[in-house]
């Protein structure tokens, strides 16, 4: 879980230009391209019933998405889309090739991270053993 309100404050105070996000690559990674396939199980991203497609088609594609960087013990930080899945879906459906996105650093991600799922004092995800 991430505190999006705190993220927006962080971005406003530590201004940076949005980066360009490849819509097809991210939509594929989040299995948005397979939402209607009943035989697929998404391990990341929304389920076929978990994405409001009608709402997605009303979203503002000019608003940058937010990508966090998760610490994974023993590996470089891993990117994770934390805000903008509906915008990503709309862009993919409308064949928009790129969207603006704010890329947080791993340190910034730790600042806006809710550690409820990780447990007290945990700030990274250990890889499976």
Provide a descriptive summary of the structure in words.
The protein has helices at residues 4-13, 23-29, 53-56, 85-93, 106-112; strands spanning 19-22, 65-72, 75-83, 98-103. It is α+β, with helices and mostly antiparallel strands. Strands 1-4-2-3 form a 4-stranded mixed beta sheet, with helices on both faces. The longest helix has 10 residues, at 4-13. It is globular.
Features:
129 residues, alpha+beta, 5 helices, 4 strands, disordered C terminus
Short structural summary:
This protein has 129 residues and is of the alpha+beta class. It has helices at 4-13, 23-29, 53-56, 85-93, 106-112, and strands at 19-22, 65-72, 75-83, 98-103. It has one domain (4-112).
Q: How are the elements arranged and paired?
A:
Layout: H1 4-13, E1 19-22, H2 23-29, H3 53-56, E2 65-72, E3 75-83, H4 85-93, E4 98-103, H5 106-112
Helix pairs in contact: 1-5, 2-4
């Amino acid at each position: 879980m991430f505190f999006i309100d705190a993220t927006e404050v962080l971005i406003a105070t530590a201004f940076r230009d949005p980066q360009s996000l490849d819509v097809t690559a991210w939509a594929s990674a989040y299995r948005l391209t397979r939402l209607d396939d009943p035989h697929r199980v998404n391990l990341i991203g929304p389920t076929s019933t978990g994405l409001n497609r009608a709402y997605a088609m009303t979203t503002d594609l000019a608003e940058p998405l937010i990508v966090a960087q998760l610490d994974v013990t023993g590996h470089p930080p891993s990117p994770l889309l934390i805000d903008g899945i509906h915008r990503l879906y709309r862009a993919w459906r409308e064949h928009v090739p790129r969207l603006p996105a704010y890329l947080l650093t791993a340190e910034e991600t730790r600042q806006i991270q809710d550690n409820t799922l990780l447990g007290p004092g945990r700030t990274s995800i250990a890889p499976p053993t």
